Amino acid sequence: MKRSEWIGYATAGALCGYLIGALLFFDNRLSLASSGFAKLGFYLAVFYALAGLAGGGLALLGWRVLRRWGRVEGDERAGRQAVFAGLFLFVLLFFWNFDSFYHHSTFEFGLLVWRLLTESFVPVTAEGALNLGILLLLVATSAALAWALLRLRAALPAGRWQTLCRVLLAAGLLVPWGVEAARSLADRETPPPLLARPGRRILFIGIDALDWKIAGELLAAGELPHLQALAARGAAAPLETYVPAYSPMVWTTIATGREIPDHNIRHFSAYGLGGAVAVQPLVEPSLLLGNPYVLRVFGQLGLVQPGSVTSNTRRAPAFWELASHAGLNTAVLGWWASAPAEPLNGIMVSDYATHTDLSAAALEAQVYPPTARSMVAAELQAARQPPREWLEQLFALTPEQGALLKDQGPDAAPPAMREILHSLQHDSGLLAIAKSILHAGQPELLAVYLEGLDTVGHMALHYWLSADPASLDPAELATYHQTAKAYYRLVDAWVGELCGLVTPDTYVFIVSDHGFTLEGPPNYFHHKSGPPGVILLSGPGVLAGSTPRAHVRDITPTLLYLLGMPVAGEMEGRVLEEALAPEFRGKYPLLSVPSYAGYRSAR
Ligand SMILES: [Zn+2]
């Protein structure tokens, strides 16, 4: 094999790396320093050039095998190039295809092979068969493309073929810049003006893991009077969600009305570019064409680092952005994937805020506007010591545990209790901020997110609802038996407090991202299978006793409609019309615009 051929393989690989780097850069066109891109692009090009050389080696072997065992005739060099092209196309198609199939999680090649072995053959499952079918389709497509390339090469004189290769290379180098230029031109289109009907107000309480069935039973037993009052006043229904129901992606769908690939918050974590401070634009693994191994190597080199998903990877505008652009006074507290805090006509406290040391420097990126920082810090600080009666309601504490908690605070508690107490600090801190905002004057839109029921679900739900309590540790059973129920009651009391501070004509949304259910082994409560959450909705025009068929993607369209704002055609969700009185719908017809994309580009 000649040197020029090896150079060709390395060049093809490097071009791939370059294109991936450009994709990463433009998809996260934020505050990323161009020196960071140059470094990443360089390493990607080198990495993929090496992959190209390896591909060349495989092509050499592959062609020999084909010639000897497949009795394939033809020009040696062209044969090797066709095999190489087939291999490369397969890898690209493979990750591209599976990125969309498995959009909710990082797809791993090893996992696929394992699934093929364990599921496709012994025993055959629908998912395993699907995987196998997709894989075969990809192999066939790659082979067909490589064959077409081979034919094209044979048909062209050598000089023309080389020119074609050079043109393709140049086009490859220019493609991302062209795409980006077209995209920024499209972004320059004026987004539709946003108008809201004056006087409409919304209180949105997001309660992670509030379960339809458990809440229903507690409601029937009269244990949750405030939620019961809301349910009696308006619509109450189970809320369908995604499978698997991972909180960041579901809450972002709730906030945008868009599907997961469209809003791009796909998981709990993502990769960020190396050297970034705590909260920086983060890069989804899928953007490296789904290749987690490349990312792992780059992680070792310090080029990328894993971190939590952040607000600046969200591609679709959230309802708070739209409300704020419409001139509404807006407050958003603790929402998933909302760090760093976004500038709003109002107040935003990110989900990171409660996890910081509450210093002014730590809160700088987590609270908007800067003038709200001292109030936020004071409320969160006060919430770090939970009231004694809450501790007594949540846990059956031994005298020693009680004394330890009193002296050393929640950090001295055993692991499960510590987790629950951290969530309690988080929730009660955000609740205090919400009350402080309401006391200063009710904003048109106040959205607050509470996480504690999810933590309690993971840590303590089985002590209450176990199918086999005898298998549990008796001391732990005694400590945590009441925890989940007590947290439901606490949440109900908080809902009552907030509802008591808003005007009677306020629309109240109570929404959860999923429920909790017994999954798999006894005592294992989880929500991967997407047990339904809850929607309670009340306010002027909402039909009491209605039970809309609701999905998490319907929340934003419904919220926009109630604010008197148009719903975007690009939203997959719908307005929950069956929860609204016909006269109300007649008086306020549904308005729509094609897209709100323009409200997300100005970052
Ligand atoms: Zn959870």
Q: Which segments are poorly predicted (pLDDT under 50) over 5 or more consecutive residues?
A: 97-108, 275-281, 285-290
Measured by DSSP, the beta-strand proportion falls in 5-15%
**Under CATH, the topology of the largest domain is which?**
Alkaline Phosphatase, subunit A
Text of the CATH class of the largest domain: Alpha Beta
* Straight-line N-to-C gap: 51 Å
Bound molecules: zinc ion
Helicity level, as a percent range? 40-55%
CATH superfamily of the largest domain: Alkaline Phosphatase, subunit A
Overall structural class, as computed from helix and strand content, comes to alpha/beta
Strand order of the largest sheet: 8-7-6-9-1-10-13-2-14
Number of strands: 16
Number of separate helices: 23
Tally of separate domains: 2
Radius of gyration: 28 Å
CATH architecture of the largest domain: 3-Layer(aba) Sandwich
Described by the principal axes of the CA atoms, the overall outline is globular
Mean pLDDT: 84
Main sheet characteristics: 9 strands, mixed
Walk me through what this model shows:
With 603 residues, the chain is an alpha/beta fold. The protein has 2 domains: 3-187, no CATH class; 202-262 and 310-601, Alkaline Phosphatase, subunit A (3-Layer(aba) Sandwich). The chain is built from 23 helices and 16 strands. It has helices spanning 3-27, 34-69, 76-101, 109-121, 126-155, 158-187, 212-220, 225-233, 247-256, 260-263, 292-300, 319-325, 360-363, 373-382, 388-394, 399-408, 415-440, 452-465, 474-480, 483-499, 555-562, 582-587, 598-601, and strands at 202-207, 235-240, 269-273, 282-283, 304-308, 330-333, 346-349, 367-368, 445-450, 507-511, 517-518, 525-526, 533-538, 550-551, 567-568, 592-593. A 9-stranded mixed β-sheet has the order 8-7-6-9-1-10-13-2-14, sandwiched between helices. A 3-stranded antiparallel β-sheet has the order 4-3-5, with helices on one face. β11 and β12 form a beta hairpin. α18 (452-465) packs antiparallel against α20 (483-499). The two termini are 51 Å apart. Mean pLDDT is 84; it is low at 97-108, 275-281 and 285-290.
